[in-house]
Amino acid sequence: MDQKRLLDSGKYITELAQRINYLADIKGGLEWGSLQELLDRVQNLRSKLFDLKEDELFVELEQIERRLDYLEDRVVQDLSPIEIVNIVRSPQRFTLQDILENCYDSYTELGGEGECNIDPAVVVARATITRRVKNRLYYHQVMVIGHEKGYGEEFRNGGCAKPWGNEKALRYMKVAEIEGIPIHSYIFTPGAYPIEDYPGAAQQIARNLFRMSRLKVPIVAFISEGGSGGAEAIGLADIRLMASRGYYSVISPEGAAAIEGRIKEGGKVPRELVEHCAAQLKMTAEDNLKLKTIDRIIEEPPLGARRGDYQFFRRLRYEMVRATDEVVLQTKSFRTFRSYALKRQSQEKEEDFSDEFDIHIKWSLTDSEKKRLLELRSKKYRAMGKGYKELRQTLQSRLSEAVESLKQNYYDIRYGLLRQHSRQVQKLIEEVSSEGSVFLKTVTEPVRVAYDFVFPKPKSENGLNQQDILRRSIFMQEWEQYISPLANEDKTVSCPNAEKYGCKDLWVPDLYGEFSGVCPSCGHHFPLEYQWYLQNLFDPGSVREFNKHIVSANPLKFQGFDEKLKKAIERTGRGSAIITFDASVFDIKIVVAMLYSDFRSGTVGSAEGEKFIRACDRARTTRRPFLAYIHTTGGIRIHEGTLGVIQMPRCTLVVREYIDSGGLYIVVYDNNSYAGPVASFLGCSPYQVGIRSSRIGFAGPRVIRETTGADVPPDYHSAKNALKRGHIQGIWDRREFRKNLFEALMTMGGPHLYYK
Amino acid sequence: MEINLKDLLKKYKSHPYEDHEIRTPHTGVVHINVEDGQEVSGPTGLWNHRPGTLLYVLEREGNPKHITSKYTGFVTKLRKELDGSFVQAGEPVMLIRHRLNKEEIIDRILREVLYIFPAPQRARYFFTPEVSAAMEKDKKKAINLKEGDEILIMSLMKRDTLLSYEGPAGVLYKVYFKHGDLMEQGTPLLGICSPERLPFVEKMIQRIRTEWDD
């Protein structure tokens, strides 16, 4: 027993109690390893501190410490994924506040402090971080954005960002971009707070991702607790670091267990199932590094870093500076020696670790470097999350692929090289002729009037021009309508609004035949299979599917998922929950991605993400409008873990590139559209429309009830309410889908259906 | 309008129930799901979005319609003989007897006894400053009203309109809104009692509150 302990035994007893409680947090209770007994002994010591003799006290303390050391070693040797989750959730774990205090030299919190804040779960600070190079200090300005879990303050919501919290984050990202300073984002969230109030949980995350994909400053993210969509809202970074005892997952293990075990609301989820799911989800830092969803792991102490682990903060500060250096250096054309110096230093052993840098790198970027930064970001995310399977293609499909490749070259020349020149020439001619026309008009006008009077312009038979004819034809059904097989049943059904509007019972052949699944009295839309849309929405024979050979797999080897996947493939005859195809609507050629319900409830995994990206790229190459028709999506497929989550930034980035290049991206939601996809590549579209009676949102009513403790009205997610909140821009009737789509293409698409 | 208060009280005391007859909305085969005397509950939840107890299923042309209870109470006069048989529209299937609690009885009696002044349109309502001040000054003092008295301010879209009382002269007995509440058109705002009937009404309500079991 050293002198310090002698003098400070009260404090030492408190530390021991904290260590015991920390172990109890990790093991899920005091029952394990007789922790309760140890804690009782510590409490006993505390109460009798001044009654015991010094020797007795020290002997007892030493015994407790030895026992604790032994127990901690045991926990470290056999740390399970659920225990890592418990480490992250422990109230003793470090928070963003500790990082700001210990890694940054000074900081100013923006947008309020503590409770007086638009969202106390999101902290934004303008901070200064220093680097020491040969005993000289260099200062860097950064924007720190992250989640603050707080030390048990209720108002922090455990780090669950509300929509306006994410909006605040976005606002300051833009400030960082204007000021040209890097962003350090710290992810400490179990998930986003699932409410639809404006700007809406899903829509705001989508906006953040959309903006971050082209943010012209280096972004470095550090993940301690990465809860799905909430994490992505500030997580689209050039380098993603992760704490060695952190977790990054598509869903909480409890949520996954409730789904896997089909546990009813309010029911208790068995602990074994939660542990099983935690292991299956591959959420630890090592797993994520293997899956390449993160770039590097930052080592913590074996049982995780706590608030007082200053050595860890020293390391973290060094790693954040180094990661930012790396991002900046990658954009430089001349960087070999500096990169080498940085790499050599990072390979130093832990015990030799020094936070002094050999070099100083400035973090400001020139215009060309910013361009390269965005290129690298795009390349990085495009290469991520490839957990799908590619089937061997038939000769025919390989031939069509070759044709596609040729087409691509053609389009590159047509819209790339030639278009560029022709536009310039056209522009010049327009300018010259405009100038000339002003001069000539005064001379030629009387002549033109006289000419028109003598030789009037011929009109078409009914006085309409070609555009009018085309517009008129949209009211006609040019081919025999596809009838849903649902109509083959001789029975009646009741409209769910019958009580409210007095709708009469509907005879099924009428409902699914003549009425197209729409109640004639109140307009309620009964769900229809996706084939109905394939047949009735597009011009007959125009649908040509591509990338059929990309199929869903089980990249995490999630137990029992192979069978489920097999069943889905057998039932649908398809390999994924998305169908991508070329089609035309009134002869307007478009590219379509369709998520449909029959295949794992339209959930998005690697295959779906990849097919979506390829479809989007195809639309960009061929300069065609891109339609995402969402028959149903249940969110990100939990069985693919973070490989699924990563599809959110991935696909949004590609959508952003498409829109930036001038593309028209329209999203139409039908039936149910929830979670990740809505919070990323769908929600970022400037034109989002809901089909009547559809539901759109972030989390379903059950998740909202369980997370927030508040009930939600039955029509909370209805398209009507989504429209009222400003999440979508319109509601379409299914029977007028084709007409409305055509009109949307004509009005939003401009003369060339492609802006640039 | 002469109401015998004693008879009214007697009526509720002898039969403190409200009966709701459940009839078939259309033809079909009935499958009864409850027993005679069984307690049933009406819709629940903040928005009454959770349906009440399933009473019976009415099936027509392969469309089984689940008829749930709109009221809380117990089932009586159940026509069990209809179970499994085809019935016409409007056929009584059972009666749901809802036991009125004290507050419901008081509310019903007051509505019969008092003159109700309804909201002329959907708006926010306030008492005029004079009435408001009088109410504040002495909460127990009765406020007498006669036709033409300016009593309320109707506020809608930043337009304030003075409302004059229309109805028989009397004492303001019950206020159905809180200061500044948004009230729908036709909902009761004030309950006015004639001065001679006032002591009886107060006594009766007192008796119901203290003596009756809920």
Structural commentary:
The complex is a heterodimer of chains A (756) and B (214). Chain A starts with a helix and ends in a 7-residue tail after the last helix. Chain A has four domains: 3-78; 89-311, 2-enoyl-CoA Hydratase, Chain A, domain 1 (Alpha-Beta Complex); 395-457; 528-749, Alpha-Beta Complex (2-enoyl-CoA Hydratase, Chain A, domain 1), CATH 3.90.226.10. Mean pLDDT of chain A is 89; it is low at 460-464. The longest helix of chain A is centred in the middle third of the chain and has 60 residues, at 395-454. Chain A has 756 residues and is an alpha/beta fold. Chain A is built from 27 helices and 23 strands. Helices cover 45% and strands 15% of the residues of chain A. In chain A, the strands form six sheets. In chain A, strands 1, 4, 5, 6, 7, 8, 9 and 10 form an eight-stranded mixed beta sheet that branches. In chain A, strands 14-16-17-18-19-21-23 form a seven-stranded mixed beta sheet. A two-stranded antiparallel ribbon of chain A has the order 2-3. In chain A, helix 8 links the parallel strand 6 (183-189) and strand 7 (219-227). Chain B has two domains: 17-99, OB fold (Dihydrolipoamide Acetyltransferase, E2P); 103-211, RNA polymerase II/Efflux pump adaptor protein, barrel-sandwich hybrid domain (OB fold (Dihydrolipoamide Acetyltransferase, E2P), Beta Barrel), CATH 2.40.50. Chain B has helices spanning 5-14, 102-113, 129-137, 198-211; strands spanning 17-23, 28-32, 39-40, 54-60, 63-68, 73-76, 86-87, 92-99, 115-118, 123-127, 144-145, 150-156, 159-164, 170-175, 182-183, 188-193. Chain B has four helices and 16 strands. The model of chain B has no long low-confidence stretch (mean pLDDT 91). In chain B, the strands form four sheets. In chain B, strands 1-8-6-3 form a four-stranded antiparallel beta sheet, with no helix packed on it. Chain B is of the alpha+beta class and 214 residues long. Chain B is elongated, with a radius of gyration of 23 Å. Chain B is 21% helix and 37% strand. The chains are: A alpha/beta (756), B alpha+beta (214). Chain A binds chain B through residues 489-494, 505, 507, 711, 713-714, and chain B through 26, 45-47, 49, 60-63, 65.
